[in-house]
Amino acid sequence: MISATATRLGLVLLAFSLCACTPWVKPYERQHLADEVMSFDRDPIASGYLNHVYEAREASRGAEGSGGGGCGCN
Amino acid sequence: MPKVAAEAVVAVTKQAMRVIALWALLLPLVAVAEVLPPDRLDVMYHSYDGGGATIDGPSMLVRKNVADTVSVSAGYYVDMVSSASIDVLATASEYTEERTEYSVGVDYLHDSTLMNLNYSESTESDYRSETVSTGISQTFFGDLTTISMGLSFSSNYVGINGNETFSATAKNYRYQFNISQILTKSLIAVFSFESVIDEGFLNNPYRQVRYKDSSVPRGYSYQSEVYPLTRNSDAFSLRGIYYLPWRASIRGDARYHDDSWGIAARDFEVRYLHSIGSDLLLEAKYRSYSQTQADFYSDLFPYRNAQNFMARDKELSEFSSGNFGVGVTYTMPQRWLSVFEKSTANLYWDHFQFDYDNFRNVLDTDAPVGEEELYAFDANVIRLYLSFWF
Question: Are B148 and B136 in contact (CB under 8 A)?
Fold first, then answer.
């Protein structure tokens, strides 16, 4: 069911993306977005380690937004 | 694993593979632009100290473009573990061990499609894991929308130190989908979904459950944990980051996890990043986490072999935790290390407090069996690293 939902979502996005959409935030308006303070993952080595700590101490896993860890840590 | 369950896992796996293959075919049709990640070297010392366990070690990650369209990366990571945790003190004695992980990866930019392929190997004295992962990423709508997908497969080998006759395996499949959307000139949001499938020997072979036993003076005994041979989980997250006019940002994350073992988990995080001049970034954050317990978890079973599946892993119990963190990033003057385009020194400290709702401290021997104090502990995590762009 999840896969079917993902397929439908993909087809909707594909249909939208084929239209001649005009971006509502122009390239010259994105200087703030390009600033490093707006990065979700400035330092992958550091965020990856913290996600590894979370996965070792919590039952929850996945959708962290960056690389997790995989080991049999106690 | 039961045949029916195995077939179900295979069917889900094949269906997810088809969806990802379809996406891989369609994405290049509507691609706009992607870029390779920058050349960069990170060297980190990491430390975890809490609950009687100390885990620290070095880590390194290097990435280099080898052509206009190819970037390669390599990673090295070590965990040096010294553990006298509550689990260890209850049923064993303090131990030390080391885990080493190597990883390599390649990113390939082709016709505006960014693809990556990674391999990693992790080795401990009683555990070995190999992981292959791949992903694809593209932007749409004039670069306002970025969609990425990934999948990974891990093969794990489980052993027991001092018991050469024990050997078990476990497999892990992960499927990820992310959509990042620029909403305004100052706001970006990301939705992520990840499905994880495990099959094989999933428990820690050393960990034990306790059950009431009136034949011994302390009133309880231990036996090995028994876990199901499969576990499926889905996780969803929504994150947003907003630019503040004084060159700062505020970020909010929310995540929900649900799995076939009956565990539901939620976490929320707020993070503030503040710049001082052009050289200094200061960060403060708070994260809250809570989860329900697994269906087959109990702190104290009524008798031996009370259920088909039994767990007393505190990570499968009901608990909540809070995590406060602060950090600083300093961009060093380029004249200090002129060989690099940019160099930063970074120090981040996180403090955790874990409070368990159904995991009792068996070292509290004054209390009656099953009425010991609830276990709680705090932990400190340090990340100290240098980053160099070249």
Answer: yes
Looking at beta carbons, which residues of chain A come within 8 Å of B99?
71, 73
Distance from the A11 Cα atom to the nearest Cα atom in chain B, whole angstroms: 9
Measured distance CA(B116)–CA(B134) in Å, rounded: 5
What dotted CATH number matches B3-389? 2.40.160
Distance from CA of A42 to the nearest CA of B (A): 11
Given this model, what pLDDT does residue B11 score? 56
pLDDT tens-digit readout, B349-373: 999 999 999 999 999 999 999 999 9
CB atoms A74 and B387 under 8 Å? no
B-chain CB neighbours of A54 within 8 Å are 289
The Cβ of residue B34 has, within 10 Å, a number of other Cβ atoms equal to: 20
CB B211 within 8 A of CB B302: yes
Over residues B173-183, mean pLDDT? 95
Residue ranges of domains in chain B: 3-389
Task: Assess B378–A contact: CB distance below 8 Å, yes or no.
Answer: no
Q: Within an 8 Å CB–CB cutoff, is residue B243 touching chain A? A: yes
Q: Give how far A52 is from chain B: nearest CA, Å.
A: 11
Domain ranges of chain A: 2-57
Which residue pairs from A67-73 have beta carbons closer than 8 angstroms and sit at least 24 positions apart in sequence?
A: A70/B122, A70/B129, A70/B131, A70/B154, A70/B156, A70/B172, A71/B79, A71/B99, A71/B101, A71/B122, A71/B124, A71/B127, A71/B129, A72/B124, A72/B126, A72/B127, A72/B129, A72/B156, A72/B158, A72/B204, A73/B55, A73/B79, A73/B81, A73/B99
Kindly provide the ipTM of the predicted complex, given to two decimals: 0.89
The Cα-based distances of A73 to A52, B55, B129, B141, B378 in angstroms read 10, 10, 12, 42, 18
